[in-house]
Structure formats: C-alpha cells, structure tokens
Amino acid sequence: MTLDVPHTKTDTVARDIGYVTMQDGMRVAYICYRRKSGRHPTVFLYSPYDASATPFEVAKPFLDAGYAFVGANFPATGCSEGVLETWFDRKEGIYGAEVVEWIAKQPWSNGDVGMVGNSSAASVQMWVAAEQPPHLRAIVASGMFDAYEWIYQGGMLQLYCLKWAFTSQFIAQASGVSDRIKAGDTECSAICGSDRQVVKNSFYDEIRRHPLNDEWWDSIYLACKEVAGKIRVPTMLIGAWQDRYAVRESARIFSQLMPNVEHKKLVLMNGDHGGTGALGPQAPRLVDEERMKFLDRWVKGVKNGIEDEPAVTVYWEAWEPEGDPKKQVAGWATHHKAWPEPTVERRPYYLTADARISADRPGASPNEGSRAYLYPTGAELYGTNEQFAAKPYQEGVLNYRTEVAASDVTLLGSPQVTLYLSIDEGDDTDLELTLKDVDADGNALFLQADQLRASLRAIDEQRTSSDEIVHLFRKSEKLEPGNIYDIRMSISPIGHVIRKGHCLELTIGAPSPIIKQAIGSFPIGVASINSVYHSEKYPSKIVLPIIPEAKAQAPAPEWGTQRAQPCRKGTEFEPGGLPTG
C-alpha cells in the first residue's frame, strides 16, 4: 500500500507498507519512505520492535540527506512471518540479507544499502553483514551487546534484562503491530499468532535455563570468527562508556575480530544505552553527525575524507544543554589510530589498609593488613542523581581514594582490579566496584562500575589481553570460608580526566536488585564478613590506563548534566567497612 506523506511545502514522499517474500516463502513486514522520483541509496533499519511501523520523523533526516528509508521487523516479530527456535536465531541474519537484496532491486533504489540501529538492531547488523549480501555497502551499529555478558553481567542475571526479554517479546511489539494496522495493513492481524509466526522457545525462558555461558549462548554469539570475522563492508561502531557491556563488546570486535574490514571506525563518548544510538528527534547531535558522515562516504559515495581520519574518535565530557540531544556538545575530541590507544601506560596502584590508593607497593610502606565489610548490605546506586545521593551503608562497603592529583590524570581504556578476598560464611559472594571522581569540595561524580560473581572468576586466557580481563563464565568454582582468593576483573572502558585537585575513589560493595542504568541483581550467598587483603603477599590493586601528559582541553560541564553520570554533593571521606582491632 502506497501513501503520500507531506515532506516540505513543495515536496511529498511516498510511504509504502508491505511484505517482502523470503526464499523459504515466509514474508517480512516493511515500511518504506522514498521520494516519488529518482533512484536513491537506502538506509535500512532492522529490529524486533516497531521497525516496520517506523514513524516519518525517524526517517526524515535520512530523506533530507538524499536517502530512501526502509524499516523491517525480524522474522516472527511485529507483523513479520517466520519460524524461529528462539530470538537471536541466525535466521534473522539470513532474512535481513534477503531484504537488502530486495531493496537493491526496487525501481526507487540505486542499489546501494547501508544499515543503522541501536541495541538489538545493532547486533543483527553483524549477522546480516556476515551473510555478505552483495549490495550492502556499510553498517553503523551503536549500543551493540554480547547476549550473555549483557544479560548475566559478571555472571549475575540482571533483572532489567529479564524484564526486557519479557516485554520485548510479549509487549513492546504490540505498538508496532497497532500502528501498522491503523496505517491500513489488512494482513497483520491474521499473521500475528498464526502458524506462520512462531518462536518455539521463549527467549525469556531460555535465558533463565542457561545461567552459565554454555553452548546455547555460543550459538547466538556474534563476537566470533563465524560472524564478526566474516564482515567485509565498512563498519562504524558507536559506544557509550556508561553502556558498559555494549562499549566493551564494540571495542573487542573493532580491535580483535574485523581483520577483513578495511574501513572501520570506533566512536566513543560518555552516555547510556538508549541515548547514544537513538534515531530521529532523540538522536544525539554528535552521533547523528558521525553516522551521517560515514553513510555519506560509504553508501552515497561522497568523497568527504573520512577514510583519511584516524580509526578511533573519542568525545570527552559530552553533555546535552537543556536536556536536548540535538544540542549535544563535547568538551573536546581526540583521534586515535587504534584501540586500545598505543601510548596508554597501565600503571598499578595498590589498595592499602588505611583506605588509600597508593603508587607504593606493599612492603615499601607500612600498609599491611586487611579490611572487612558486611556483605551484602552496601550497594552504590548510580542510576540517577536522586539514587546516587543516597550513599551506601558504609559498613557494607570499602572505599579507597588516591591522593589529590597534582596535575590532570587522563584515563582512556579499561581499569583492571585484583582483589585478594575471603568470606567467613557461605560458599560465594558477588562484587560490584564503582569508580568516582571526587573534587576538592568532596562532590562525587560517577564514572564507571562493574560486577563479578566470585565463583565465576576463572579467566579466559585466550581472549584476555593487556587491556581487558575476560572471564569464561563456564563453570562455578565455589569458595570456602577463610580461604583467600585472587580475583581479577576489568572495569569497562572509560575516558575521563581527573583534574588537578581532584582524586579517584574506588568502592567495593555488593550488587542491589534496585535497578540503576539497566543494572540490578540479587546478591548471591549469605550474610558474611568479607575481607580484602593488602600486603606484600596479597597486593590488592587497581591498574589505571593513563595517557601520559594529557590534560583536559576545556572546562568541565556542570556536574549532574552528563547522561548516565550522576553526582552527589560534597561530604567528608568515609573509609567504610567494619571496625577492626
């Protein structure tokens, strides 16, 4: 069905709503916005939500830039037909590649297709590109995640992700279905719930059946040679620091799994999962500009020089004046030839019994001893300014601070933490670490966090690198009370300047089921006195990725205005923990 849509005072575009027939006879629901004359390159959005009912305001920026726009739903989602074993069946990639080739054959298409999308719509681009459809010219994927490490962050089932799996499969699609029916789709009602639209195993149920990173997760994993390693087209990956598992996955794929991609780009900035990859009116300005420039070069063929730019762009201290993503600005940008940045120095700093983070190794100064905290009573809530204002119960956390910085300290990469830890009861414990920037008045700005279940501490030596510690999550190795365990973990990548006069604070605590930034899980185990050790034999430490001599190049934005980086007002430093001695 074709309908005219007002575009400007002197122009209209055609909107098509219909179905593309796949080679197996199933049909994929699509919507297309296009100019009524001429042949144009096409931007393709492919997702499990409402892509086949994409509103005009999402397509409009691409139309204004000279593209046609197609939105299509994954098989067995929305109004699309298809029979899947479960969501993230690789059939999604096969169908997506067929839609690409269908687009290329349309009379309004010039044969050049590029893909865009965030989250699920980013991950599926890997699968589509791995099929190597001849007319796919480039992909731009933001907020891309690995299924296990996102849903079981640190080996812990995230309640938000469980909610997402339920609402995405059973609720979120309804809006797209409703919109298509209202727009005149007369076939959708008969498709929904029929034997031509089947998901045999609910993703919501499947993820709970597989708490370890087993062969089922392997079957839907995209960061491997069989998927990401088969991509050939120019690829842009966009990640936000506080969307921590997505930025981690983007960095891994970019640096390790795209050997055959000649033109690849990694764009990094502070932000969250939804904001960094949004399309239409909610699209952040900096992301919009980077995405369009990449599409213009590799889909439209505009010689804009992007191929001569360094492969990695980092926007520092991005924020949105008046909360308007279209006004997004950054303090400054840096450009890098590779990720991780080759000039980064990984400097070890040791945790001490008097709550310091010190450059001195244990034994060189009198910092022997251990500290204890009551598990699981202390959790840092960093979802909003209101949450973050509620300090964690201090006897349930351990806090450590560096000395006040004598000059700017620029962090770029993944901090790594080694903890020598014991518990006094039960057989397991969960760790949540948070990093904060604390100014001279004691105001604290959230930077980054990460989690790990202690029983899942085994390291994947093949995938671990100097920049990142990667865990297997294959087998649970329970703890014994009183034994001291060496637990190593990475904190997700961060780009931040600790300015002169500020210090860095590390907090060790427990996770909380209260959801903050899509993170929230029930702590495992039982009430316990957990101890962290600091000695020559047990040197707990943090390794910071520091760019030597680099300094802030602009004034800091007002604290509390950066997306996903809450702050709390100044207080005196509290070491936390239980009294000892």
- Pairing-aware structural class of the strands and helices? alpha+beta
The biggest sheet, with number of strands, parallel, antiparallel or mixed sense and barrel status, is: 11 strands, mixed
* Strand-residue proportion: 25-35%
Low-pLDDT residue intervals, each spanning 5 or more residues = none
User: Any idea what the shape is?
Assistant: globular
List how many beta strands DSSP finds: 29
Strand order in space, largest sheet: 1-2-3-5-4-7-8-12-13-14-15
Number of helices: 12
Give the fraction of residues assigned to helices: 10-25%
Report the mean per-residue pLDDT as an integer: 93
Radius of gyration: 25 Å
User: N-to-C terminal Cα separation, in Å?
Assistant: 78 Å
Task: Walk me through what this model shows.
This protein is an alpha+beta fold. The protein is built from 12 helices and 29 strands. The radius of gyration is 25 Å and the shape is globular. The N and C termini lie far apart (78 Å).
Helix-strand blueprint:
Layout: E1 2-8, E2 11-21, E3 27-35, E4 40-47, H1 56-64, E5 68-73, E6 82-84, H2 91-105, E7 109-118, H3 120-130, E8 136-142, H4 147-151, E9 152-153, E10 156-157, H5 159-182, H6 188-191, E11 197-199, H7 203-209, H8 215-219, E12 235-240, H9 244-256, E13 264-269, H10 273-276, H11 285-300, E14 312-316, E15 332-336, E16 345-351, E17 357-358, E18 369-375, H12 385-389, E19 398-401, E20 409-413, E21 416-422, E22 430-438, E23 444-453, E24 485-490, E25 494-498, E26 503-509, E27 528-534, E28 541-546, E29 567-568
Parallel strand pairs: 4-5, 4-7, 6-11, 7-8, 8-12, 12-13, 13-14
Antiparallel strand pairs: 1-2, 2-3, 3-5, 9-10, 14-15, 16-17, 16-28, 18-27, 19-26, 20-25, 21-24, 21-27, 21-28, 22-23, 22-26, 23-29
